[in-house]
Amino acid sequence: MVDTGATVVSVSEELARKIGLSSGVSAVFNTAGGRVVGRMVPQATVQVGGIRVNDIRVGITGGDGPALLGQNFLNKIDIRQSPQRMTMQLLGAS
User: Fold this and answer.
1) Is the pLDDT of residue 32 over 90?
2) Domain count of the chain?
3) Which of 6, 45, 55, 57 is the most exposed place for a label (fewest CB within 10 A)?
4) Do 6 and 71 meet the contact criterion of CB atoms below 8 Å apart?
5) 39 occurs within a structural domain
6) Rounded distance, CA 16 to CA 14, Å?
7) What is the pTM of this model?
8) For residue 18, what are the domain limits?
9) pLDDT tens digits, one per residue of 36-65
10) Residue 66 φ then ψ, to 5°
11) For residue 40, what is the domain's CATH number?
12) Given this model, what pLDDT does residue 94 score?
């Protein structure tokens, strides 16, 4: 899910386990729902479709919510939206 209000990409503990995301360091996240304790992985790779971004921070939180694409991912891509579709392309790609 695209979350323009999120600073970093965030995934649930369950998804982190499924994709083999490393343990990270303890962190506290300020979310729309309040403070949440989790972990921060300082250098992860995030891939959405054919778009791959390396060496970005990913927060791991409890719960089973959707993965959130935060600004540290979004500021590296071009997003175009129409009433029927949203497309993303890596900045600088043609």
Assistant:
1) no
2) 1
3) 55
4) yes
5) yes
6) 5
7) 0.86
8) 9-90
9) 999 999 999 999 999 999 999 999 998 778
10) -70, 160
11) 2.40.70.10
12) 58
